Amino acid sequence: xxxxxxxxxxxxCTFCSPQMKLNKSKQIDILLETPGKLNGENDKMYTIIxxxxxxxxxxxxxxxxxSYWIVDGKKIEPADFFRGHYKRDDNExxxxxxxxxxxxxxxxxxxxxxxxxxxIYDFSKQGNYILNVKSKHNRQNATLLGCDSYxxxxxxxxxRVLEDSIVAKIPFVK
Length: 174
Hints:
Layout: H1 2-14, E1 19-21, E2 28-33, E3 36-37, E4 45-50, E5 56-58, E6 63-71, E7 74-76, E8 80-81, H2 91-97, E9 99-101, E10 106-110, E11 119-120, E12 128-137, H3 139-142, H4 148-156, E13 160-161, E14 164-173
Parallel strand pairs: 3-14, 5-13
Antiparallel strand pairs: 1-2, 2-4, 4-10, 5-9, 6-7, 6-12, 8-11, 12-14
């Protein structure tokens, strides 16, 4: 019986993917499987874990800072830029967009690590890519696109806006 358990345990670890912690907070973990895969889409699913007894509000577009891509050691410039502006001007949109993370909860979701990086990049070349990110999430950044009144309602109910930063060099492969 012990041999079967050992074999199952070994096989289980074969399929595990390493995850990189991207943020600085000890209460919340924001993780990404690494190396990330560049398959023509830049939308990656992140695992977010609440290690605390508090409930947090996270705006998936509330991380703002500076980010850029590097391929084989050289910074690459965007091929184009996204145009337009996203605005949430009613509480229903805020309910749909904002992430409410309850104590000990674990979710997989999309977040934008740097809302101000509107670049569209050419990932057609084979190589080792790195996304270099320095960004912050706080109450001010979480309300730039709207939701101030909705966040005030949540805060009055005991929820906290995540105060955190991301400083990471995230490897991707093509």
